[in-house]
Specification:
12 helices, binds adenosine monophosphate, about 325 residues, DHBP synthase, alpha/beta, four-stranded parallel sheet, globular, binds magnesium ion, Rossmann fold, nine-stranded mixed sheet
Length: about 325
Amino acid sequence: MNADVFAASQELKGGGVVVLPTETVYGLAANALDAEAVKKIFAIKGRPLNDPLILHVLDISWLERYTHVEKFLPRIEKITETFWPGPITIILPKKEIIPDIVTAGFSTVAVRCPDHPTFRAVLKASNLPLAAPSANPFGYVSPTRIGQVKATLGDKVKIMLDGGECSVGLESTILDITCPTPRILRPGAITADAISKVLEEDVVDYDVQIVSQNPNAPGQLKQHYCTNTRLVLFEHGHREFSQYFAKKKAIVFMQRPNNPDEIAKKLQLPAEDIFWLSYDGNLDVVARNLFSTLQYLDSAQYDTILCERPPREGIGIAIDDRLLRAAAKFNG
Ligand code: AMP
Ligand code: MG
């Protein structure tokens, strides 16, 4: 066994916390069956105790250990056969063995089966279900590279495993399958349409309007993923920026503009202050680059980040959700 994987699993078995890569974002993991260990996650992140964590399992066989699957088996089978391991979390009734701190007192638990080989190796070696939120201070942009974790939590966690750049770059889709009609609680790379096709039934898509009317629903905070630097969004395709006053602004496009130098000249900006999240508008690439670019810009000397909104289709719905919540802090 790889020495890093061994060290991480020993630390977890001993009640410690470790940073692990996943395909979505980096996670801060602890043994989900040990309430004292899970408490450390909340303390390190400054996360409020009413925000429940996701339980990570190695495969479907672990589901029965921790959740009541019986009533939902047809849905579970379809979802897991198609999408697991992968970036989709399902909500199920929890078994007694899961401490309340993991679920913020809810009788349901969110479960995911991650696809990153390092995370899977640690699950296997420790043989423990791992509670793991994103490895960032609560409310800040999620980390998609180990350097970003080290910059914010470096002095708080001893063992951090580097798994390279996260391939998805956005947190998992969260799907509640305990409702009469399954419902998306958080949009992600796996969309409501894709899920609906697999389940062969309707799925209630995530709706920003409804979410903002339910501020107490877990994790559906209007403000989240925030930069410290002011973030202002502009509509997809909009190319007129004279109304935005800022001494030093960065402009972020979804796709490389044909004429970045011309745009810079017109706006009287240095060309290096124009950024793009993909060359060709591929939204998977945008998602992968989003958080790392925001963090980079946040640490650079800008007073405003102007960012284009994505088209609201496919994974664009999830990208737009993260941007709206990141910008909410600056909307008065
Ligand atoms: P993260 O912040 O990426 O760790 O994701 C955790 C999120 O999962 C929470 O903020 C909630 O949105 C969601 N979640 C976890 N457990 C539950 C649950 N029992 N019911 C509904 N949503 C949950
Ligand atoms: Mg998070």
